[in-house]
Amino acid sequence: MNTLLPTSTAGSLPKPSWLARPGTLWSPWKLEGDELVEGRQDALRVSLAEQERAGIDIVSDGEQTRQHFVTTFIEHLGGVDFERRETVRIRDRYDASVPTVVGAVERKNPVFVEDARFLRRQTTRPIKWALPGPMTMIDTLHDIHYRSREKLAWEFATILNQEARELEAAGVDIIQFDEPAFNVFFDEVNDWGIATLEKAIEGLRCETAVHICYGYGIKANTDWKRTLGSEWRQYERIFPRLRSSRVDLVSLECHNSRVPMELIELLRDKKVMVGAIDVASDTIESPEDVADTLRKALRFVDADKLYPCTNCGMAPLARGVACGKLEALSAGAELVRRELASQDEAGSVVPG
Ligand SMILES: [Zn+2]
């Protein structure tokens, strides 16, 4: 990236009301067949235009191409029976009815590659594409075939690697893996979670990112956050291993969270996507709010490695709110860019 402090979003943006029900995760599509294909592409164009107009530097599809960040990917795989559902506890936090792994999992066809090609044709800006991470995938399934979380995670890592290589060939600049499960299962993360993530990015020449958040602004997550105490130190358990991994960027929740900013120090040398937009609130941050979070982060991450971002996806928000937040992110980053530039000038006249 040539731009200092390049902005991006963690992933999803709200869908237009003609495509899916507003304010709803897992909303069913309102169109079907060819109309759905075209409708998703139109929604992608709108979402991209909103990002570009707001001045977002690294753009995405706003996840207009998928119903949900984990299940849509899994729907395209063999070995998973969506009729056979079981209620399981997701991320140790809430119960959900999920499909069952009944045989060897396989990727029969590319999942998002056509969509990524479509996005690539619409913009000259760098593009980022999100995929679910292996650990978050296994946590969203009932498994009666492998009967081992680790074994299934390795299988998914292989499948994700196939998809990622084709996304790279389609012109994606940054491939991001969403791993909210990394904030919950610390021992597994260190034992094999990060290792499976490295398998998923094996052989890639494009940049890679991992997004680790405290979840969408839904009730189950905000209730959980209330139980976490005055300081959220979960990141501390996984950053040392993550720092030694091959992943280039780490996307984190920072603004309005109780994560002590100094934990970022544990990721020294990594590029850090600092969440400077709260996705659990309808209040639109001011550019100054954003700048304030970025300035705090700059104490622990070098300016050339700081990537201003949102805390998580904004799918459940109203479209106007999400647009306002994109603009604030962009304007806040610009404030800090100017400060850094004037510091540079001031610095250059100091002798020696
Ligand atoms: Zn997230």
Automatic annotation (TrEMBL):
Which coenzymes or cofactors are required?
Zn(2+)
Q: Does the keyword Metal-binding apply?
A: yes
| An example Gene Ontology biological process | methylation
Q: Specify the enzyme's EC class, one word.
A: transferase
Task: Show the taxonomic lineage.
Answer: Bacteria, Pseudomonadati, Pseudomonadota, Alphaproteobacteria, Acetobacterales
Record keywords: Metal-binding, Methyltransferase, Transferase, Zinc
* Superkingdom classification of source: Bacteria
Q: Name one Pfam family in it.
A: Meth_synt_2
> Could you identify this protein by its name?
Methionine synthase
Enzyme Commission code(s) on record: 2.1.1.13
